Fold these 3 entries.
Entry 1:
Amino acid sequence: MNEIIVPGRFNGPTGSGNGGWTSGELATHLVAECPDNRIDGWPAIEVTLRQPPPLDTPLLLEESDGVTTATFGGAVIATGRVVEHTISDVDPVGPDEARAAESAYAGHVSHPFPNCFSCGPDREEGDGLRIFPGPVGDGRVAATWRPHPSLAEDWHTYVDATAHASVAATWAAIDCVGGWASDLIGRPMVLGRITARVDTLPVIGEEHVVVGAEIQVEGRKTFTAATLYDSDHRVVASAEHVWFAIDPAAFGA
């Protein structure tokens, strides 16, 4: 397989791909040879987004010196590579506390990209992820998430026949929560880089908790982290992000 396509459903800003979903889809091509369709032991993967990913458009993939590059019309859209990097998990939050925090989700009041697949309040139940992280009082944000059956993909099902969400959907779930740990309304941002470690895949229909934290702000860049936990409080996946402050009007908002 030498191309990826970001279906229109998986948008971030209007007209372009969700950064987490796009990065996760690219990541699957770096480890596609994984035996038995299992992801246990997958390494950390770093994806850098160079331009807004176009929707419903084949992005050609090329590999050179351990870097996979996705291009469209000769322009580099994203690059991905396996990295030797330890990603620290964000401390967990209980499901009751996370559920209560959702009512204070700032995106309910104002949102730079309200149709975002991951965190857009304008998306219908079963269409978008509808992850609405609110503050939990210590600088972190948290929300619950129950993966919808539409997120399952055949080859992402474990050999025990339990349905799991796709790798791309998993990356999308640990994307925007990082931005909401910072001031995403006063300082609109888009994802520039995400480095993720996926330990397992989310079980369809099971309640999960996703937690985000801001690390630091440096000029136009904001550094954040996120971790996804299953119903038994085990880590599903963790990520670190680099966000870039932007003018939302430039992204169709």
Entry 2:
Amino acid sequence: MEQLPQDWERALVIAAHPDDIEYGIAAAVATWTDQGKDVRYVLATSGEAGIAGLPPTESAPLREDEERASASIVGVSEVEFLGHPDGRLIEGPELRRDLAAAIRRHRPELVVTGHYGETWGPGMLNSADHRALGRATLDAVADAGNEWIFPELVHLDLWNARWAAVATPTPTHAVDVTAAVDRAVASLTAHQRYLEVLDPATPVEEQAARQIGRVTEPKPGFDAERAVGFELFTFRG
């Protein structure tokens, strides 16, 4: 398994919900910011439908605050929310347009997003938002460099990212995150209210440590004690 390319300066991580990035990708983010790289986040929704018993009007600002706190732990200061409806993302022109606009604004060499496959494994269905967001993100990487698809974005200069990396259970490339595991756990732990409701019986830090431990297990063919895996797509040389 090859190492993810390192010859870039800016990455944009695109996710559907607050907490999506923290289930593994944040370990790679911490590694990159340690190297002096500029990493930014764009969230399609504010995760307002994600906490049982808490109305969306109260949940949205709470989850946005948790995401900003979480991002700061791994060295990310710029977090943007696009305001699409949680649980109802549609893989179509509107989402692609907004993501393409974000890519043009932030001008990343590397775009990173989450797993968009139908399942996580046998009997484990992936969420509709994840499926829609991941596919729309890959399309938006191409859209951001095309002057004709979304002419209403003429006020934003065209941008061609070099790569897109998708966090997936079947990776082609990996990042050594051995030195970043503790911060990745702390970053997920920052989603305090969300995790408390998700699993009231298990302390939040224990939940986070378990999740990060699982996703950063050593990758076959990659020499690192702890790693995060990605499928890499190349858009231009």
Entry 3:
Amino acid sequence: MQAWQFTNTHEPLLLTEVPEPTAGEGEVVLEMKAAGLCHSDVGLLEDEGWLSMLAKRPITIGHENAGVVAEVGPGVTDFQVGDRVGVCPTTAAGAPGYSFDGGFAPRMAVAAEALVPLPDNVDFLQGAAATDAGMTSYAAVITQGGVKEGDVVGIIGLGGLGQIGAKVALLAGAEVYVAEVNEKVWPLATELGAKGVQKSITEFEDVTFDVIVDFAGFDTTTAQAVDIIRRDGTVVVVGMGKLESTISTKSLILNQARLIGSNGGTKEDVAGVYEYMATGQLNPTITTIGFDEIPEGIEKLKRGEVVGRLVASFE
């Protein structure tokens, strides 16, 4: 079979003939149906700092995956041939495309412990996107932020993650306000169901926030969230727009704020996203490409030309 493989930084992906995988102990082989593309794929191709994360080279990349179980290895009892699944990239099995050959190929071998059942009414494109962007957003809002019905929630940044995070908070029963500097995105905030949208989280003068999730992470955005969060409120930082932030320790102490970082998520978070998707109310925007278009898709991500999440379809 042919696979898109990474060989080295500053080198293009190569379409390489590789052996078809077989299922070892505790593993399954997936017939790939969809594989998401991510800005981390851009980083891998451009930044030598990513090389230490790779188990081998060349390696088939692709860490956002959904497919159908095509083969079951010894010791696997929870899944069978024909099951629709997504692959959580944060389990002890490691991340596809980093710890082992990933999803930019027709078939992929993966430990069964990484699999999350995909509901029948959730398509494979959404199923793949949920394993990274969906999982990360859900974990930040629900698992780390503890958002629940009746909470007043601020979402900073309405990009790919922020859009999902805002909708997850709304589906959890929260009242949501969005801070987004790009006014072209404001109509989307209204479409999602947000009660208000401004350029800065500080512009909601009469709103008291229980939780603020910063999907931008541009230094001042985090500092402002700490300044205005209610006493005993929670600020969750997801975005890494800048790698440092200067916050007021006075605000942190007087507000007795919980300041939490959120990185990725778990199988339970992926399953939570699937539950919301199955209702039909969580339907993130997806741009679809074919398997042959994966390298150009990564270039489009680099140029900022992609709307929503970018997913390669194998169907």
